[in-house]
Design a protein that fits this description.
Its EC number is 6.3.2.12. GO terms for molecular function: ATP binding; dihydrofolate synthase activity; metal ion binding; tetrahydrofolylpolyglutamate synthase activity. Pfam families: Mur_ligase_M (PF08245). InterPro entries: Folylpolyglutamate_synth (IPR001645), Folylpolyglutamate_synth_CS (IPR018109), Mur-like_cat_sf (IPR036565), Mur_ligase_C_dom_sf (IPR036615), Mur_ligase_cen (IPR013221). Pathway: Cofactor biosynthesis; tetrahydrofolylpolyglutamate biosynthesis. It contains 15 helices and 14 strands. The longest helix has 21 residues. Strands 4-3-2-5-1-6-7-8 form an eight-stranded mixed beta sheet, with helices on both faces. It has two domains: 253 residues, UDP-N-acetylmuramoyl-L-alanine:D-glutamate ligase; 146 residues, Mur ligase, C-terminal domain (Protein-Tyrosine Phosphatase, Chain A, Alpha-Beta Complex), CATH 3.90.190. It is α/β, with parallel strands linked by helices.
Length: 413
């Protein structure tokens, strides 16, 4: 169950003041990638860094890293047990995400990190992570229609909620490629708080960050990757100016090439799960904005001479299926609809029924063959592999589907 608010997490952490500084990141898309860029660059610069993102990918504790390494399971469970005992003893009744947030923050204390890179779970203003009070820089990424039942029915209302992480005296970085409504909403809140701000984009990077403009010329990056890197490097500069004023942030740019963010435009080989030896594209696109990015990438890189694409897809219950899949699936594509399994620590997350999803896909696009596979992901993967032969094959629609695929693959090794 999702219940926003700061009272319960404040009670969980009232006896343990946070001993580290934070970089706080909110938005609809790009949060995880920017978190990965920042923690990697800080670690490369010798800063002891923790990272907390959500949801987890394969194991419940892999959402917490120390020095770019996933926290040890034994330490995670030890701290988690302490937090849960405190919750029970004090009768707080914290939610799963609040318990996880407190666990992550306690682990950062225990591991004596200097900086914690923290991604918002949902929204911003009332998100459990907004208990942070020693923030170096706040980051607002790309914002779209997101969790309207909790955050508001208009893009302006949602942007205001996400901008709720901004704090007096704390500089912020904002993705200036956002829609005009989002940019104006965030600008208005920045002015209310009277804080320093940087609205950044690849279009203005040559003026704002000349060294980064040169870096982009040397790499084949997708537009959204450039946008995320602009935000990350801008935030890095602001953070280092307070932590390591003698350090040149631009000297760390070569380390960007080493950053890997699983489940985002990730090419994987699924042998021995299936017979196919050619790579498959794995992407957790699960909302309209991220699906649009994926659709453009697939159209440009994979639909060679109009070749159809074979998809394995799933979606969380309640998603706007037309908004997610309408921009990626084309007439003539073959589609296997599947379901992801139970999500550890998030029992309220349920998949859309595979048959219902198949009906929706047929209504959205005049696709080729659409086949549903209820609770049988491996069979769906094998069917899609046979249909695709050596042609393009993509798995998308849900991060939880990505998680299940990676778990299946790990179990075979």
């Amino acid at each position: 169950m999702i219940e926003l608010g700061l009272t319960r997490v404040a009670s969980l952490l009232q006896q343990t003041p946070l001993s580290w500084k934070a970089i706080h990141i909110a938005g609809t898309n790009g949060k995880g990638s920017i978190s990965a860029y920042l923690s990697h660059l800080l670690s490369a610069g010798g800063v002891r860094c923790g990272r907390f993102t959500s949801p987890h990918l394969v194991d419940r504790w892999d959402c917490i890293t120390i020095g770019e390494k996933v926290v040890q399971e034994s330490l995670f469970r030890q701290i988690e047990d302490q937090v849960k005992l405190r919750d029970q003893t004090l009768g707080i009744g914290a939610s799963e995400f609040e318990l996880l947030t407190a666990t992550a923050f306690e682990i950062f204390n225990h591991e004596r990190v200097e900086v914690g890179v923290v991604e918002v779970g949902m929204g911003g203003r009332l998100d459990a992570t907004n208990i942070l009070n020693n923030v170096l820089v706040s980051v607002i990424t790309k914002i779209g229609m997101d969790h309207q039942a909790f955050l508001g029915s208009t893009i302006e209302e949602i942007a205001r909620e996400k901008a709720g992480i901004l704090k007096p005296g704390v500089p912020c970085v904002v993705d200036n490629t956002n829609s005009q409504e989002v940019v104006e909403t965030v600008q208005a809140y920045v002015q209310e708080l009277g804080i320093d701000s940087l609205f950044v984009s690849p279009a203005t990077v040559s003026e704002q960050i000349p060294a980064l403009a040169s870096y982009f010329q040397d790499l084949d990056l997708e537009p959204h990757q450039q946008e995320n890197i602009c935000c990350a490097v801008s935030a890095l500069r602001l953070a280092l100016s307070q932590l390591r004023p003698e350090m040149d942030a631009f000297s760390l740019l070569p380390y960007l090439a080493d950053v890997r963010w699983p489940g985002r435009l990730q090419n994987i080989v699924l042998q021995p799960l299936i017979g196919r030896t050619k790579p498959i594209l794995l992407d957790g696109a699960h909302n309209a904005q991220s699906a649009e990015v994926l659709g453009k990438y697939v159209d440009r890189k994979m639909r060679i001479q109009g070749q159809p694409v074979t998809w394995v897809i799933a979606a969380s219950s309640g998603k706007d299926l037309a908004a997610v899949f309408g921009s990626i699936i084309r007439p003539g594509d073959r589609v296997a609809t599947a379901e992801f399994g139970p999500v550890d620590g998030m029992p309220w997350v349920q998949p859309t029924n595979a048959k219902d999803l198949a009906c929706s896909i047929q209504a959205i696009q005049n696709s080729g063959q659409v086949q549903s596979f209820e609770e049988d992901l491996l069979t769906a993967l094998r069917w899609a592999s046979e249909e695709a032969q050596d042609g393009p094959l993509v798995i998308a629609g849900s991060l939880y589907l990505v998680s299940d695929v990676l778990r299946l693959l790990r179990a075979q090794k």
